[in-house]
Amino acid sequence: MALKVKVNKRAITVLAIAGLVIIALVVSRGGDGGDGPGTMDAAATQGCDDFNAGYPKAGSESSRLALADRVSASTMKTGNDAIRNAAAQVGDAANETSAEWKAAGDALLAACRDAGWAR
């Protein structure tokens, strides 16, 4: 038994448009997969600005923790995975040695600069 399928121009057009929409969605969602620097949004900019302003003055453990909390509050709202992850590392390093704190801070500022933040 043979099945005849009749395809008209309208069906082809609808399928082609649906295919393009699906491809566009896949490409747009894969744009910031965390592998690259990402882009700056308001939350990332606020976190980078806060950290940059407070970093030189954060010498004691309590001031490091306060700064890390302030930065984390901003960066947890960002869509930039690199900055959000670097900010989490700053929070983890706040109780650690000065070398670990400096390394985490430098990594956060580098992630900020890589994403286009300039201060």
UniProtKB/TrEMBL annotation:
This is Uncharacterized protein.
